[in-house]
Amino acid sequence: MAKGIVVELTNDDIQYAVRQHSAKCMIARAVKRAHPDAEMVMVDIQTIRFTDAKTGERLSWLTPPPAQRQIVHFDGGELSEIEPITFRLLRRYAIRIQRQVEKGTPEQREAYRAAKRERRSTAGMRTRTADVAVGEGDVPVASVNKRPPRSPGTTKRIYGMRTLHVNQARARNGDLPPEPEPIPEGY
Predict the structure, then answer these.
(1) Is residue 41 domain-shared with residue 76, that is, in the same domain?
(2) CA nearest 90: which of 48, 57, 54, 53?
(3) Which residue among 60, 72, 113, 183 is the one 20 to 30 A from 78 at the CA level?
(4) Range of the domain at 42
(5) How many Å apart are CA 49 and CA 45, to the nearest integer?
(6) 167 within some domain
């Protein structure tokens, strides 16, 4: 691996990949084949990341421009624009992602974790009261002690800009949600 990982995108990778899925896309399949020790491979238009099973290192590379173009075409459903390519992930350009290591005695670590759980359980909890005119009297609003919902980790790639090439293809195919209705005047 001194010279890097040569990643060859084949027609099989394209055929059996899943659109808009960071772990099952065609580039992720090609990386897994090129480096059999790669685990938890995740690919998007910005980075290619995986954990090396031999060393335990989590590595990240910037996605090469030819691979970025292929991902955008693939996620947009433009399969005629996709062609097999070859690119190299050089080890010297890999970014090593450090794991956090807890220090101290087991009791200190447990005390730290307990304090962290307590902070998380109260974070986002707000009690508010307000007066609202209902009928003849004012009624206080009940206390709100709920944390906002957290979104789970996801591997689905969704692009936010409507003008992005992927979204233009989706709009042509009728895959985009309808435009929101305008807000009425004086609302």
Answers:
(1) yes
(2) 48
(3) 60
(4) 5-97
(5) 11
(6) no
- Residue 9: inside a domain, yes or no? yes
Do 33 and 114 belong to one domain?
no
φ/ψ of 88, rounded to 5, equals: -125, 135
- 160, with CB counted inside 10 A (0-12, 13-18, 19+), is exposed
What is the greatest pairwise CA distance in the chain?
Answer: 79
Q: Does residue 172 form part of some domain?
A: no
- Say what the pLDDT of residue 75 is: 87
**Is the pTM here over 0.90, yes or no?**
no
Residues 90 and 45 in one domain: yes
Assess if residue 182 is contained within a domain.
no
State the Cα–Cα distance between residues 74 and 36, nearest whole angstrom: 24
- Joined together, the tokens standing for residue 181 give 């209705």
Helix (H) or strand (E) holding 47: strand 47-52
Mark out the alpha helices in the chain (DSSP H runs).
Answer: 11-16, 26-34, 65-75, 106-122, 165-173
Compute CA 35 distance to the chain's CA centroid, rounded to the nearest angstrom: 22
Q: How close are the terminal C-alpha atoms of the chain, in Å?
A: 63
